[in-house]
Amino acid sequence: MRNLDVATLRALVAVADAGGVTRAAGFLHLTQSAVSMQIKRIEELLDLQLLDRSGRTVSFTASGDQLLSYARRMVALNDEVVGRLTAQEFTGTLRLGVPHDVVHPAIPQVLKKFNAAYPAIRIALEASHTLILHQMFAKGECDVILTTETAVAPGGVTLAERPLNWVGAPGGAAWRQRPLNIAFGRLCTFRPLVVGALDNAGIPWQMLLETDNDSSIHATVSADLAVFTSIEGTEPQQLVPIDHGGALPDLPMQKINLYKTAGKLSEPLEHLVNVLTAQLGAG
Known about the structure:
The protein is of the alpha/beta class and 283 residues long. The chain has 3 domains: 6-86, Arc Repressor Mutant, subunit A (Orthogonal Bundle), CATH 1.10.10; 92-162 and 255-281, D-Maltodextrin-Binding Protein, domain 2; 164-252, Periplasmic binding protein-like II (D-Maltodextrin-Binding Protein, domain 2). 42% of the residues lie in helices and 23% in strands. It has a 5-stranded mixed sheet. A 3-stranded antiparallel sheet has the order 10-7-11. It has a two-stranded antiparallel ribbon with strand order 1-2. Strand 1 and strand 2 (59-60) form a beta hairpin. Helix 2 packs across helix 3, helix 4 crosses helix 5 and helix 5 runs antiparallel to helix 9. The longest helix is centred in the N-terminal third of the chain and has 25 residues, at 62-86. The radius of gyration is 22 Å and the shape is globular. The two termini are 38 Å apart.
């Protein structure tokens, strides 16, 4: 009988989530060679090739993708068992601040993974604007915050850097109109970047909607009355990046940054930071 080891399955999941062996090694606090050896051990046990190593980046074979699905469930079940039986001494609340546009799709998975490991700890999730989150963090109202910025302030670490895209209704034509109708939140950090880019490109524009309600923006853009912007991979499901062919100006890359409480972290807070780093950094 051949038995799969949870540690090796965890390495497989880490490689998938981190996008490569090197980053997975950092997340697991192992050397790159140790992670590679764990993957090789599973391949030898199953007599299957799980990773396609022929290209510049590591990708999963069909067998690897199939095993990955099982591995996620087995690792999650292992963590749930350990968490339920041993982590009850950790109680209380951790306060996590996240920009509105970064909540989906990553944060639900973060909360799920953290709860499996520390079920007695509540995550108080605060979704707001980057400016507000910085203010809350400075006042000690959040233990960890994520931000979307063009730079990183002292004490922060960049988890990912992604394009800022123009977004509109599927098959929409609002982006062709002049003046260009745009819709933004009053405190959105993207707004001055967008306005500056339009002005520099000599494209006339008008603020069709200025609001604190993201749902109002999404409804307006869905109706093809205006356009707005979002970080690649975070656009609402009913909206799509605009293939404008250069008719709209390029926008600056955005950093997804993490700021955490200074000093030695508690075990649960360190775990939360690690899960955020793996989940957001994978994008």
